[in-house]
């Protein structure tokens, strides 16, 4: 394919998926989608291979969406799909790892011929069951499980499925508002792709998709072949409320003959009784992100560039969740997945990696009744600690690597639920020292304005084990989660009194390089 023509059409594809993401953010009900960008959008070819992804989104959603599309058409194959159909699932093992993330796949037809799919995954406010925390004893306590089904059939809503969803969630208006945003995003993606085909007189996107995916894979393999061959080892450890310590170990093998990277998690912690277990697709998503971000971040992220990065997961492992273990707070472990990989690769490319950061975002969900006795469930809102320092730069403060999700502004939260914040400021000096300093964490305090008891779902990490420095850099400060001044949080939903106040100190990032005296 002509290089100039390819570049123009590639720009068109990026515009389409980015417009899908913008449409989602502008129309979503949930603040975590609208304000924080906890979403993913992508265009797929007719074989459900991801061709292009939106510029907004999180690695856990984007790379999981790549797997979800394949899985969904494996259950409802193309010959059973008609114009106007829309596929849906939140199956943790087929999509993004927990019930809150719902994936919609919109088939794109051109003159009655299926030419591809527009996909999206977003975090929904509520899916029934336990909530976003880690206290469920098995997956069936965690909420509504939606298998791969048709949300719309031939352009009409599936009434049975809509009634099932409506009667199994606490806030149906918010759920269906967000689903409508996803439907509109997928419809727009199909319309824009057809308009592009009109401009360039294409019957389908098969040749274009093949060219993009093949070039991406070839370039990724070429970059891997430039690295020193061998196997490199890394690990990281962190703690969660209640005292449990999780360890992730990796052996990263560079195969320069095949141009492949194999990441083996053998030796990592066993599954947890808490809902922090990680399904393979989510582990793979953050593993590939870690390698891609330091290998050649300018390459497109699609089926081609992801293919040469392999993940091997042992059985009976926390990052290889098996039914029926609970998984709702899988991000607590999943967002630590890049650190042992980066620690391993620091042996051969210290100039490209970064020191350990605060790890998973501290996610908070609140449930209760307002002063008028109306029930409310907050969308999950996030607070980040400090990012680890890099070889040439300090770590960013209040920025969580690797998720990239933003914090919902406190003004938005105070306007949407009966919450009042008492403070939100940087914790100066909490980043680890070094030639380049780790990013600082932050201090956040809040209480509820309902005058009634309420429920708190939260599972912070790094309360005892700090983020490690790199190349002689010092570790960052540990975090603290205080209720009325005391550290009394367990890894489960907590009943709170009407006057209780929460104060959070998020951890600092590790420093890079030994400071010479």
Rg over CA atoms, rounded to whole Å, is 22 Å
Q: What count of domains describes the coordinates?
A: 2
What's the number of extended β-strand segments? 20
Beta-strand percent range: 15-25%
Helix content: 25-40%
- Tertiary shape: globular
Name the structural class: alpha+beta
How far apart the termini lie comes to 58 Å
Average pLDDT for all residues: 94
Which regions contain 5 or more consecutive residues with pLDDT less than 50?
none
Q: For the report, how would you describe the main beta sheet?
A: 7 strands, antiparallel
Describe the structure.
The protein is of the alpha+beta class and 517 residues long. It has 2 domains: 213 residues, no CATH class; 164 residues, no CATH class. It contains 11 helices and 20 strands. The strands form 4 sheets. A 7-stranded antiparallel β-sheet has the order 2-1-5-4-3-6-7, with helices on both faces. Strands 12, 13, 14, 17 and 19 form a 5-stranded antiparallel β-sheet that branches. Helix 7 packs parallel to helix 10. The model has no long low-confidence stretch (mean pLDDT 94).
